[in-house]
Structures are given as C-alpha cells and as structure tokens.
C-alpha cells in the first residue's frame, strides 16, 4: 500500500464517519449521467452528481460565438422517433428545426464537380453499407470493392479513370471516418449493430443550443429551481470508486481534491476513452476481466471541428454544407506539415448563428489540430476555404475561431465509439461494458452507462440518454423488489 499522509487519513475518517450516505452517486454529467441523475431525483432518491469539468453536458458543449451559439460537440438529434432527446424538447414546447443538409460538391482545383455522378455513387456507397457481406470485413475495403464493381458495370467509360475513382473513394473515406469517429475506415466493420432512429436525421436545437436538453432534464431551464434532492458538484474529478461486496457496505467515491462521498450505489458514465486510460486506478477492487476485455477491444476515435466566424455571411444563401473532393495530385502537393488540411472533409452551416462556418476533421488530423498554434490553424483553414469556396468569392478574414479538443480533454479522450473489426468476434462487448457490479446478495452497486454501452444507439446523445435511463431504472426496479 502507498503511504498516505496522516492529514489525509484523518480527513478520510472524518468525512467517512459523518458524511451523509446518498442513495446514488452519478459520476459524470453528460447525457447519460444527467438522465440517470434526473430520473432518480424525480423518483425521490437522494442523488449526488460529480462532474470533473466546470460545466454540465460532457460531449455536448454549446458556446456563445458569432451572432449566436455554436456546438463544439454534438449538434443534431439523429432521428426524432423514440428519441428521448427529441421528446424532451417537444414536451417542453421547444421548436426543434429539421435542418436540410444539401451538400454541394467542391473540387480541390476549383474545377466544376460532376454532381450527378458523385451523388449517385455516394447513394450507392451508402446503400452498400446497409447491405453487408455474409462474412464481415473492413468497411473501407468492402465499399472500395463494391464501388469499383458498380463503376465497371454502370459507368464503363470512367472505369479506367483511376484519378477520379481515387478522389471519390478518398472523399468517402474522410466522410466515413468523420461520421463514425473512427481513425481508419478499415477499422470499421461491415458488421455494425447500429440502428438509426426513424424520422428526421438532422433535427437542430438551433438558437436554443443543445445545452437546453440538459437544462430541461435538470429542471433549471428558464431559471427553474432544479431538484432539491439532487446535489451537483462541478470541478470534481473522481479518482477512486470502491465496489462494496457486502450488502451492508456503502460505496465510497474519492475525488482528486481529497473529498470523499458515500452512497448505496454509483453510476459511472465516463467515456470509453477515459475508462481505457484510467480503469486500473479508478476502481477498487479491479474490474472483472469481461469488462476489462470490453474496454480493451472496443474503440473510440476522434472527430474535430474548427469554427470560424465572419463579419457577415459571404457564402451562397442556399448553402447548408459542402463536401470537399480532393484530387490526388492536389493532395500530394501539400507540404508534409500541412497534410492535416487535406483531411478536412467539408464545411457546414450551423443553425445557432448566421455568420459562422464549421470545418470538419477526423482521425490523426483532428488530434493534431488540437495541438497546433491558433494562428497556424486559422491561416491554414482559410487557405482551404479559399481553395474550395473562394473561386468566385473574395472570402474575408474571419473575425474569430474556435476549435474542439475532445482528444486532448482528459475527461473525454476522443469523439465517440464505433463498431470496429473486432466486433464480430465480441458482439456482446457493449453489454459487458454496461453490466453492473453486484454485491454478494446480487444487488447492483456499481453501474455503468454512457453511449459506449448502447448496442444499437451508441455514438449519439439519445443513445447515451437511453443508457442513463436504463441504469436509473435498474436501481429503481431493484429497490422495489426489496
Ligand atoms: C464533435 C462531436 C460531434 C458529435 N455530434 C453528434 C450529433 O450531432 N448528434 C449526436 O446524437 N451525437 C453526437 N456526438 C456524440 C455525443 O456527443 C455523445 O455520444 C454523447 O454526448 C455521450 O454522452 P455520455 O453521457 O455517454 O458521455 P459524456 O458526454 O462524455 O459524459 C461523461 C461525463 O463524465 C465526466 N467525467 C469523465 N471523467 C470523470 C471523472 N474522473 N470524474 C468525474 N467526471 C468525469 C466528463 O467530464 C463528462 O461530462 C458528437 C460527439 C462529438 C465529440
Ligand atoms: C479509358 O478508356 C477509353 C476506351 O475504353 C479511352 O477512350 C479513354 O481515353 C481512357 N481514359 C483514360 C483516362 O485512360
Ligand atoms: C421534423 O421531422 C419530424 C419527423 O420527420 C416531424 O415529426 C416534425 O414535425 C418535423 N418538424 C418540423 C418543425 O417540421
Ligand atoms: C444555390 O443556388 C444556386 C444559384 O441559384 C444554384 O446554382 C445552386 O445549385 C443552389 N445550391 C443548392 C445547394 O441548392
Ligand atoms: C425495469 O422494469 C421495467 C418494467 O418492468 C422493465 O421494462 C425494464 O427492462 C427494467 N429495467 C432493468 C434495467 O431491469
């Protein structure tokens, strides 16, 4: 055992013996944690929520920018039917806007894109993803093969145009890596268990901001009073969670600032990236091997945003998004240190402002951009914008820039999880990750929620919320039984 200074020991004894015992401590106030905490609080439980960051929301982060609000993390409600997120908005009379994302294709040398051909190929590629091969294989490899076959069959006149095919597949690769938050589209599997919700796929909180979802759940919207039996502590990094083995024992949660809290149960909602980095020290006793295996074999990549604001919008009024088509020769002429700029997949118009544009990055590029100096990122981003969008327009300098840092952030360590090539071998990894740790009487005492634990709806805010509800209900069901 490590030596513990006597003052800390004394503090532990004092805190331990006199502090109140909560029904449940929720670790993390992202979508999963906020849902769990508010569900339990509404059911009358005494709840403490501990959040390491100085804000609620986790991988949702709405910030004032431009002439309104922008989202550094999640932006859309992906599917409105049976979405806990959409239903929360509607139940509170918030008018959600269905954003039409009509992406125009722009080519890296400024030449006009063959929009009809590219759209048809893209539709085909997405259909192919929904038509997986009998034996799972890496997604990139599969899409490449099927697209090549399709071109030979349907467009024989371009079948030998290797430059065009390469630039199209590179665009698909960036698109898939960004969409799935995967570091490589060949680490994605064709055997994905993801299920889309029905309804509109890009419903937006626009000028309300995604943060409104959290305010609604916590009953703090429009200066609401919150819940009297829910205590929230921000800037509270949890460093250790003990798993009570005996029914009479409490769970003990220690924080890096030395504070210690007790509860009958703990719901852990930290991301897979955080679990990968810290599960060894975060839990006492160590986690069972089925859980550590799940943590090891599952993956979470990175996606990133660079958001630029301008005096006023200079892009076409009807533009909602642009997809960048990189010609191989243009891409290869980019200096080595700027390779990340050739990994920008496009730009989109955000609905919480009228004067900002969002540039999208994935994988290594997203990681790198988090570490580069501000002026470099700004100057290079403008170069890319001017290359793709500045042919007929004199693009002015931006008034400000914001960028995400989901990889660098020690409390997220990435974008979101995806089904990787090991998924066919471990189809139950997400369930294993979400299984509660039980005491000797079989009661759930340390429970797990978060997008990573949702087999069908991982990688989304609604999926994360479902898992928070699931674990709150597990506790409520269990307490009814006793
Ligand atoms: C750039 C980006 C764009 C996205 N776009 C969309 C989108 O358009 N639509 C969509 O549905 N989803 C989107 N997502 C995914 C979505 O944001 C996540 O799936 C969801 O928010 C995850 O919620 P969660 O509660 O599982 O985890 P998190 O939000 O990560 O919450 C976990 C919380 O735990 C806290 N924590 C971590 N460690 C500790 C500790 N030691 N002690 C205490 N607290 C700790 C963290 O600070 C965090 O607040 C996007 C994500 C990113 C990064
Ligand atoms: C592709 O082949 C056709 C004949 O089938 C030929 O006319 C055309 O020039 C070739 N294009 C390229 C890019 O090689
Ligand atoms: C958005 O789309 C959903 C589902 O398709 C629909 O139910 C809803 O009414 C639409 N909202 C608006 C404001 O049109
Ligand atoms: C926008 O309008 C222009 C000019 O009217 C048109 O050429 C273009 O196709 C439109 N773009 C979209 C994405 O609708
Ligand atoms: C809790 O009980 C409800 C109603 O019986 C059930 O639908 C749900 O699956 C249970 N949840 C858990 C996690 O046990």
TrEMBL record:
Species annotation: Manduca sexta
Name assigned to this protein: Amine oxidase domain-containing protein
Keyword Signal attributed: yes
Signal peptide: 1-19
One Pfam family per UniProt: Amino_oxidase
Domain spans labelled Amine oxidase: 32-476
Keywords: Signal
GO molecular-function terms, A-Z: polyamine oxidase activity
Top-level taxon of the source organism: Eukaryota
Tagged with keyword Signal: yes
């Amino acid at each position: 055992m490590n030596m513990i200074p006597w003052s800390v020991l004394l503090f532990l004894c004092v805190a331990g013996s006199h502090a109140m015992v909560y029904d449940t401590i929720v670790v993390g106030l992202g979508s999963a944690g906020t849902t769990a905490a508010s569900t339990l609080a509404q059911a009358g439980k005494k709840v403490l929520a501990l959040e390491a960051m100085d804000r609620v929301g986790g991988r949702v982060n709405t910030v004032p920018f431009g002439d309104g609000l922008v989202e550094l993390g999640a932006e859309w409600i992906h599917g409105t039917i049976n979405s806990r997120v959409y239903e929360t908005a509607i139940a509170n009379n918030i008018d959600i806007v269905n954003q039409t994302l009509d992406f125009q294709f722009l080519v890296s040398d400024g030449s006009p894109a063959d929009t009809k051909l590219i759209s048809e190929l893209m539709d085909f590629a997405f259909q192919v993803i929904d038509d997986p091969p009998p034996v799972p294989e890496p997604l990139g490899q599969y899409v490449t093969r099927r697209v090549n076959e399709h071109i030979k069959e349907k467009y024989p006149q371009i079948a030998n145009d290797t430059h065009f095919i390469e630039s199209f597949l590179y665009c698909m690769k960036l698109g898939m890596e960004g969409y799935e938050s995967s570091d490589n589209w060949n680490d994605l599997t064709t055997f994905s268990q993801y299920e889309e919700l029905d309804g509109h796929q890009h419903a937006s909180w626009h000028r309300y901001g995604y943060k409104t979802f959290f305010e609604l759940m916590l009953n703090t919207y429009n200066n609401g009073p919150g819940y009297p039996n829910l205590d929230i502590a921000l800037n509270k990094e949890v460093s250790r969670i003990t798993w009570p083995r005996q029914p009479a024992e409490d769970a003990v949660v220690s924080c890096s600032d030395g504070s210690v809290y007790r509860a009958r149960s703990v719901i852990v909602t930290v991301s897979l990236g955080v679990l990968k980095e810290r599960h060894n020290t975060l839990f006492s006793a160590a986690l069972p091997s089925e859980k550590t295996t799940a943590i090891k074999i599952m993956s979470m990549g990175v996606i990133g945003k660079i958001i630029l604001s301008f005096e006023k919008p200079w892009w076409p009024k009807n533009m909602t998004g642009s997809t960048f088509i990189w010609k191989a020769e243009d891409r290869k002429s980019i200096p080595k240190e700027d390779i990340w700029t050739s990994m920008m997949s496009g730009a989109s118009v955000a609905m919480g402002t009228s004067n900002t544009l969002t540039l999208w990055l994935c994988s290594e590029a997203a990681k790198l951009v988090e570490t580069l100096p501000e002026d470099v990122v700004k100057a290079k981003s403008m170069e890319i914008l001017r290359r793709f969008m500045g042919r007929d327009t004199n693009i002015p300098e931006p008034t400000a820039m914001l960028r995400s840092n989901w990889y660098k952030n020690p409390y997220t360590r990435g974008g979101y999880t995806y089904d990787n090539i090991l998924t066919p071998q471990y189809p139950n990894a997400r369930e294993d990750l979400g299984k509660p740790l039980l005491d000797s009487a079989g009661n759930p005492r340390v429970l797990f929620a978060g997008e990573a634990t949702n087999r069908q709806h991982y990688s989304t805010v609604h999926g994360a919320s479902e898992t928070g509800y699931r674990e709150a209900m597990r506790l409520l069901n269990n307490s009814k039984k006793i």
